[in-house]
């Protein structure tokens, strides 16, 4: 049994075409499966890229909020430091003012004391002579400036009591209210 040479060639062509078509078919199925997997991956990647873009947008918004809050915190901190500095400056100014007022009061009281001592010394001699002439014993406390000042204040108060000073409007309304209550 001998095969005809053309039959061998035919079987060879048929086997080759069957192998080629099977290979083509398998490659096509494999490429379609790969395409389907790539499409699914692309969809998943697109979906994840959309999610990433949304996350990036949210992160950018949060970053902007943080920047704004940081800027406002810096402004508040700057305002707080400025307020603290103003408070320190005010305190320093108050101390300086207090010191100046105390110095002014001290110098004024020294001047008044010197004047009253100068005036008091002459008045003391005059008062001593006048009191001895009137038959009153001379008080030794009048040699001191405080006694002279006390005398001046007492005489000024007597002058004020003797003067007829009309009551102010607030005193008049207060006295009329008191009369109405009774």
Descriptive notes:
The protein is mainly alpha-helical and 182 residues long. It is 88% helix and 0% strand. It is built from three helices and no strands. It has one domain.
The level of helicity is over 70%
| Secondary-structure element string | HHH
Taking all Cα atoms into account, the compactness measure Rg is 58 Å
Give the strand tally.
0
In percent, how much strand structure appears in the residues?
under 5%
Helical element count?
Answer: 3
Termini Cα gap: 159 Å
Structural class: mainly alpha
Shape: rod-shaped
Q: Describe the oligomeric state of these chains in a short phrase.
A: single chain
Largest sheet: none
List the domain count as a whole number.
1
Poorly predicted regions? 163-178
Mean pLDDT: 77
List keywords for this structure.
single chain, 182 residues, mainly alpha, 0% strand
Outline the secondary-structure elements.
Blueprint: H1 5-134, H2 145-162, H3 169-181
Summarize the structure.
With 182 residues, this protein is mainly alpha-helical. The chain is built from three helices and no strands.
């Amino acid at each position: 049994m001998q095969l005809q040479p053309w039959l061998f060639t035919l079987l060879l062509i048929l086997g080759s075409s069957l192998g080629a078509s099977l290979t083509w078919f398998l490659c096509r199925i494999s490429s379609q499966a790969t395409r389907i997997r790539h499409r699914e991956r692309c969809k998943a990647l697109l979906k994840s890229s959309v999610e990433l873009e949304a996350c990036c947008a949210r992160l950018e918004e949060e970053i902007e909020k943080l920047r704004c809050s940081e800027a406002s915190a810096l402004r508040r901190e700057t305002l707080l430091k400025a307020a603290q500095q103003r408070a320190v400056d005010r305190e320093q100014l108050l101390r300086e003012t207090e010191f100046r007022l105390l110095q002014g009061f001290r110098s004024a009281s020294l001047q008044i004391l010197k004047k009253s001592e100068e005036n008091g010394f002459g008045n003391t001699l005059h008062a001593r002579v006048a009191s001895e002439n009137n038959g009153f014993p001379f008080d030794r406390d009048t040699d001191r400036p405080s006694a002279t000042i006390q005398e001046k204040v007492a005489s000024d108060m007597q002058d004020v009591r003797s003067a007829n000073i009309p009551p102010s409007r607030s005193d008049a309304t207060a006295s009329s209210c008191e009369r109405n209550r009774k």
